[in-house]
């Protein structure tokens, strides 16, 4: 019983020490809340910009692939042509 209590206290002390260390490291890197907000704002702008660029590239590749598949026989080619025309008009 006493050994369990001692172990629990030791574990709690280690967890507290780790939390304090992480908090100290965080405060060393980010001096103020204004700096944190500024950093997160800039990160958000770059994340959004990267998402738009990546999405544009993916859609362009899909449209290019669909253009290659337009010559398929049957109704599939006509359907793909309809999709390509719709995307181009948008």
User: What level of helicity do the residues show?
Assistant: over 70%
Tally of strands? 0
Total count of helical runs of at least 4 residues: 3
Largest sheet: none
Q: Catalogue the unreliable spans.
A: none
Q: What's the overall average pLDDT, rounded?
A: 80
Radius of gyration: 28 Å
What does this 3D model show about the protein?
There is one protein chain. With 90 residues, this protein is an all-alpha fold. It has three helices and no strands. It has helices spanning 2-29, 33-68, 75-89. The radius of gyration is 28 Å and the shape is elongated. The mean pLDDT is 80.
Topology (elements, then pairings):
Elements: H1 2-29, H2 33-68, H3 75-89
Q: What structural keywords apply?
A:
90 residues; elongated
Write a brief structural summary.
With 90 residues, the protein is mainly α.
